[in-house]
Amino acid sequence: MRLAGSLQRYCAQNLDEDVGSLKARMLLDFCLREIGPSIYNQAVRLVRAAGLMLWPNAGPA
Q1: What is the distance between the alpha carbons of residues 2 and 49, in angstroms, rounded to a whole number?
Q2: What's 9's DSSP letter?
Q3: Crossing angle of helices 2-14/21-50, nearest 10°?
C-alpha cells in the first residue's frame, strides 16, 4: 500500500515516531472508516448537482 508507506514516512519525518507497516495500515483503515462515508456522500451530492447520476435511486451511504 503506497498510502501506508506515506503515513510511515510522515510519522518518521514530522512526529519523530517510527511506525511499522501494520500500525500504518491500521491507522489508514481507521481514517478511511471515519472519513469515507463523508467523502462518498459529498461525491454523490456533486454528481447529482452536475446531473451525472447513472443510478437515479442511489442515495447516501
Answers
A1: 32
A2: H
A3: 120
